[in-house]
TrEMBL record:
<feature type="site" description="Electron transfer via tryptophanyl radical">
    <location>
        <position position="312"/>
    </location>
</feature>
<keyword id="KW-0456">Lyase</keyword>
<feature type="binding site">
    <location>
        <begin position="379"/>
        <end position="381"/>
    </location>
    <ligand>
        <name>FAD</name>
    </ligand>
</feature>
<dbReference type="GO" id="GO:0003904">
    <property type="term" value="F:deoxyribodipyrimidine photo-lyase activity"/>
</dbReference>
<feature type="binding site">
    <location>
        <position position="278"/>
    </location>
    <ligand>
        <name>FAD</name>
    </ligand>
</feature>
<keyword id="KW-0157">Chromophore</keyword>
<dbReference type="InterPro" id="IPR014729">
    <property type="entry name" value="Rossmann-like_a/b/a_fold"/>
</dbReference>
<feature type="domain" description="Photolyase/cryptochrome alpha/beta">
    <location>
        <begin position="3"/>
        <end position="131"/>
    </location>
</feature>
<dbReference type="InterPro" id="IPR018394">
    <property type="entry name" value="DNA_photolyase_1_CS_C"/>
</dbReference>
<dbReference type="Pfam" id="PF03441">
    <property type="entry name" value="FAD_binding_7"/>
</dbReference>
<feature type="site" description="Electron transfer via tryptophanyl radical">
    <location>
        <position position="366"/>
    </location>
</feature>
<dbReference type="InterPro" id="IPR005101">
    <property type="entry name" value="Cryptochr/Photolyase_FAD-bd"/>
</dbReference>
<dbReference type="InterPro" id="IPR006050">
    <property type="entry name" value="DNA_photolyase_N"/>
</dbReference>
<dbReference type="InterPro" id="IPR036155">
    <property type="entry name" value="Crypto/Photolyase_N_sf"/>
</dbReference>
<comment type="similarity">
    <text>Belongs to the DNA photolyase family.</text>
</comment>
<feature type="site" description="Electron transfer via tryptophanyl radical">
    <location>
        <position position="389"/>
    </location>
</feature>
<dbReference type="GO" id="GO:0006950">
    <property type="term" value="P:response to stress"/>
</dbReference>
């Protein structure tokens, strides 16, 4: 039997516009599709609970699509550096392909690529997750970008001069490998990705549909209708005018190339500004991955080293818990945290407000907030999630100024003026059942500014000022 080629799926759980899968199909070899749940490698961050729920649904959808095309999805659990070579040995594969990752996990890929090539295998990796590879974008001085606007301007210029590749067609048929080792692997249900005791995922089931099909349905529905209101409505959490694509992008059920091509095809005089604004958000995702590539410890270390001097007080566990549960007595913050728990997502404007409240009003380390979001977001992304938390904290690239403290009451008046969002998620607001505010917004803002002064002085001393 002809030796198979292994397609190692990771955060690219789709069939269309999947360069690694396309290469494997075009090779003429039998194709073995593999997914490895790696929770043991130091460079691979273990998934949170909501992400595991989404992953279960996404793997189910991908497995069904592959089966329909003539292949099957083999599931394995363990360190990828052990599992992939083991599958190679069991099946006699002489080639392995995958789509690239850009955080610390790329070190796993590099070591595997070297090892397998030394053993005589063909190993290839492909660009599938970004419009531009992070190392190809450099400032005039030759370094990585630290500010979004010039980065996005350069990306747009690049894409005008060298347009993104056209999305690759979905393989209609796949010659699935059926030789030795093809029938081994794990049952998805045995991985325990779905919560059971207790089952807290009812809201996720009501609001989320993992899989490639729903991703494209959402994109087409958004471009056909809601996009015209995107510029004015994207900041209003009580209105449904966003695309809802973030979890699909995070899991690679749709690619930025597909979004770019489809959005530009739908662009016309009526929606040109809105489509541009929407694609700018795709650009923000590109920027966060650019920063992650150059700073892989984004989830644990301050991007700006001077923020190591920030004087975090002793942790107030009760305040952290009140924030997590949406019981702070600050309506917009509580609405956002309850939306997060129920749906696995949160409106972007409210993400900034809830993060600012935790960091700058409660003076709780941004890393604890980032970890909570990592565990409760279905779109928890290794780049976007820590980048955005550091952006709010002021410790990251292109960060909001340290003195900017989102006032949740003013934010609610501006972006939820009729209280639709708050009433939906905090129905007891205005009654005796709703708690008093956990802190005073004005005095805690002043305390935050005083703490940030310590960082300013530390930076000045380091610079010799």
């Amino acid at each position: 039997m002809t030796a198979p080629i292994i397609v190692w799926f990771r955060d690219d759980l789709r069939m269309a516009d999947n360069p690694a899968l396309r290469h494997a199909v075009d090779s003429g070899k039998p194709v073995l599709c593999l997914y490895v749940l790696d929770e043991d490698s130091d460079e691979v961050r273990a998934l949170g609970g909501a992400a595991k729920w989404w992953l279960h649904g996404s793997l189910t959808a991908l497995g069904a699509d592959l089966t329909e095309a003539g292949a099957s999805l083999q599931l394995r659990r363990g360190p990828a550096e052990d599992v992939v070579p083991a599958v190679v040995a069991e099946t006699g594969a002489d080639a392995v392909v995958w789509n690239r990752r850009y955080g610390a996990a790329r070190d796993v890929d590099a070591r595997l690529k070297t090892r397998l090539r030394e053993e005589g295998l063909e190993v290839s990796s492909f660009d599938a997750a970004l419009l531009v590879e992070p190392w190809t974008m450099q400032t005039g001085s030759g370094g990585p970008y630290a500010v979004f606007t010039p980065f996005w301007r350069s990306v747009q210029k690049r894409l005008q001069e060298d347009p993104p590749r056209h999305p690759l067609a979905r393989p209609k048929t796949i010659d699935g490998f059926e030789g030795a080792g093809s029938g081994s692997g794990d049952a998805l249900d045995d991985w325990g990705l779905l919560p059971k005791h207790p089952d807290w995922a009812g809201g996720l089931r009501e609001n989320c549909v993992p899989g490639e099909k729903d991703a494209h349905d959402k994109l087409h529905a958004f471009l056909a209708d809601d996009v015209v209101d995107y510029v004015d409505g994207r900041d209003r959490p009580g209105e449904s005018v966003t695309s809802g694509l973030s979890p699909h992008l995070r899991w690679g059920e749709i690619s930025p190339h597909q979004i770019w091509a489809t959005a530009n095809q739908a662009r016309d005089r009526r929606n040109a500004d809105a489509v541009g604004s929407f694609l700018r958000e795709v650009g923000w995702r590109e920027f966060t991955h650019h920063v992650l590539y150059h700073f892989p410890r984004l989830a644990t270390d301050n991007w700006r080293a001077e923020f190591d001097a920030f004087p975090w007080p002793d942790l107030d566990e009760s305040a952290l818990q009140a924030w997590q549960q949406g019981r702070t007595g600050i309506p917009l913050v509580d609405a956002g945290m309850r939306e997060l728990w129920h749906t696995g997502t949160m409106h972007n404007r409210v993400r900034m407000v809830t993060a600012s409240f935790l960091i700058k009003n409660l003076l709780i380390d941004w890393r604890l907030g980032e970890q909570w979001f990592w565990d409760t977001l279905v779109d928890a992304d290794p780049a976007n999630n820590p980048f955005n938390w550091q952006w709010v904290a002021g410790s990251g690239a292109d960060a909001t100024p340290y003195f900017r403290v989102f006032n949740p009451e003013l934010q609610a008046k501006k972006f939820d003026p009729h209280g639709d969002y708050i009433r939906r998620w905090v129905p007891e607001y205005g009654t005796d059942d709703y708690p008093e505010p956990l802190v005073d917004l004005a005095s805690t803002r002043q305390a935050a500014l005083a703490a940030y002064d310590v960082v300013k002085h530390a930076r000045a001393e380091a610079q010799g000022d």
